[in-house]
Amino acid sequence: MQDRDLLEAETREVGHRVREQLARQDSTPVATRAAPVLYEKWCSNCHGRNGEGAQQGQVHFPRLTGVGAKPQRNVDDIVGLLKNPEAYGLQPPMRSFSEKLTEPQMREIAEWVHRLR
Ligand code: HEC
After folding, report:
1. What percentage of the chain has pLDDT greater than the value 90?
2. Ligand 1 in contact with 62 (CB < 6 A)?
3. 37: enclosing H helix or E strand
4. Which of 11, 35, 43, 93 could tie 112 with a disulfide, CB 3.0–4.6 Å?
């Protein structure tokens, strides 16, 4: 093979790999990228870094691992309760995040929380 042919073949190979990698990245749902950061900032204080929950005196912060398996806790429900916890029978200190988070952010967090195991 000529040097030039070799170079072209290598260039094609690298291009192929880069395209493959980009395709993989594109298929990564947005939720898996931003959600952990949002969760850490807005939820982890009460529900624990990994969603393990906590108890502080009289106040019980439920664990969120496995929460998606409960009734009324699909992704839409979690978005709904982040807007209006009372509508889901949740009491303070769980509160509405309507003023703090955008709809897409709430959905990202909800999709992520729903998958916690
Ligand atoms: C200030 C503390 C606090 C923060 C911050 C907080 N929560 Fe909560 N959360 C609670 C408490 C307490 C409950 C239980 C309320 C009840 O049972 O009445 C709860 C309940 C929940 C539930 C229902 C759990 C179940 O077992 O059904 C979900 C889901 C939830 N929170 C998600 C979140 C998410 C997502 C965030 C971040 C955007 C968040 N919470 C932020 C305190 C908090």
Report:
1. 72
2. yes
3. helix 31-42
4. 35
Whether the CB of 114 sits within 6 Å of ligand 1: no
How far apart are alpha carbons 117 and 111 in whole angstroms? Answer: 13
Tell me the domains of the chain and their CATH numbers.
30-115 (1.10.760.10)
Give the Cα separation of 40 and 47 in Å (integer). Answer: 10
Please write the tens of the pLDDT for every residue from 68-78. 999 999 999 99
Read off the pLDDT of each residue in 81-97 and give the average, rounded to a whole number. 98
pLDDT at 90 over 80: yes
Q: Is the Cβ atom of 38 under 6 angstroms away from ligand 1? A: no
